[in-house]
Fold this protein.
Amino acid sequence: MEPRIEYWAAAPELMNGHLALNTQIEASGLERSLLHLVKLRVSQLNGCAFCVDMHSREARADGETEQRLYLTSAWHDSFLFSPRERAALAWAEALTRLGDNGPDDALFADTQWEFPGDEIVKLTTVITMINTWNRLSIAFRAVHAAPESAAA
């Protein structure tokens, strides 16, 4: 697969704006492990190979287990995720799959229970940001990294 456009080169001022927001999200105080799981799950839902690869690698580098990474796509049926992580993943799925209906009041209440005050805004911002990155990468066919064995 060949990239359509090198979007960083085509619009660096916009990409730097996205990167600045992304940097603020990373420093928002939400747990890095939670950020990795949310970014990975949203990227899986959107079918973004570039982002699935990148966020899996970043999560592993930060100490996430292979098993939890594999089970992120089936988190509903796994006991390996905390109530806080489960709430974040459910909220991420609802916001990524908006369709004709947004998340219902019960899901909002459950999410707000685990993410009180400004934390739900931070979580929502991370979800919207990764959706933006996914759409850019998919639209312009960003190519994921080669396997380490092939790069050597």
Q: What stands out?
A: The chain is about 65% helix and 0% strand.
